[in-house]
Input
Amino acid sequence: MKKLFAILLLILFSSCSFDNKTGIWNNTNTSKVKFDKYKDFKKLYSDKESFKEIINHPKNLKVLLSAAKSKYSWNDEFYQESDNFYNFNYKNLNELTFRSKKISRYNLNDKFLFYKKNILLNDDRGNIIVYSLEREEVVYKFNFYKNKFKKIKKNLNVIINKDIIYITDNIGYFYALNYSQKRLLWAKNFKVPFRSNLKIVNDKIIAVDQNNVLYVIDKSNGDRLKTLPTEETTLKNQFVNSLSSSDNSMFFLNSYGSLYSINNKEIFIQWIVNLNQSLEINPGNLFYSKPLLISENKIIVCTKDELYILNIENGAINSKKLITSVIEPVINKNNLFLITKDNLLVLINLSINKIIYSINIEKKIADFLATKQKSILVQSAFISDNKLFILLENSYIIKLNVNGTIEAINKLPTKIKSKPIFISDSMIYLDKNNKLNILN
Output
């Protein structure tokens, strides 16, 4: 009996290893939950499998990035008009320099803004919350909604410009709040839920409703200046209409799969291209994409099945690859980094539309830790101080050089809930307890 017990113990411990103790891995069943959003879609147009190839980087590969910069505001949920991030300064000491008290007892939006040393948040009860880092407390809270909307879960889209917060919601309201003066400037009810991020162009606010109608709003009084109806879908999915802007044009990707280029000054459609590759194009077809990105003279659209690189001037498709990303891709100069559903880190050179390398992140982690390979869940990625950082759902950060070699793996001091932002060489995020955390 003792021998049998010893054998059972040996089997048990041989199946476990140091990798379980690190806590970096997730079990396989958990990783499948991440992609439940795709259950609505049927692959009607192709029997090809998505990209799974391992490609080693060339010897003496040099990846040129823009210079790292320190930023002191974050006015847009995607940081800037093009929805593209910078190479941020970040000390990466992984030291917790500040942790607030609990901001709200309700569920906070996982995207927040930073303006004049204030952090601007919102929760699903519709509260707009202004937290002062100088005073280390909530200095203003505003709720627009009356009792009849109390039980409705609010999904707010927010942008800030010159002390004024502009908000759309999933009920159909559009309103402006001057938080420094603590007063509501105007409010309009368009009676159709809004479903897009917001952009400010030439003193106009651009928003899109769930029926794929684009609104051009006078930001001084909320008056509707123009609407542009586009193709409506009868079925709704998780895709949120995506807006991005360059110097002269606004780009709008709707839930039907159509990408519009709109003149910023006179608000007219310059060109349209449809990226919904179903065999039957009809209003019932579901489309999904990551938010569109702009990089110099290119538009990058990562749909549920393919990656498109388009010419910004005329919408011509420069490249189409059977590859997709589980995170919002990261662009810096001509370098596009994405992570596939098989957890392959892929680098594409946008100037030549070529895959430079494709590496298995899980294998890289296992080799770095000298452990067995298991699955991970990736939350987001960013570039800081010429390094690529991959943030996992379980609050681990993987630091890699841009050639794909892991340099360090660290665990955040608290469990992350939100997308991080980078201010004054520090990283700010919300944790699972609705507390703000600052790392230097």
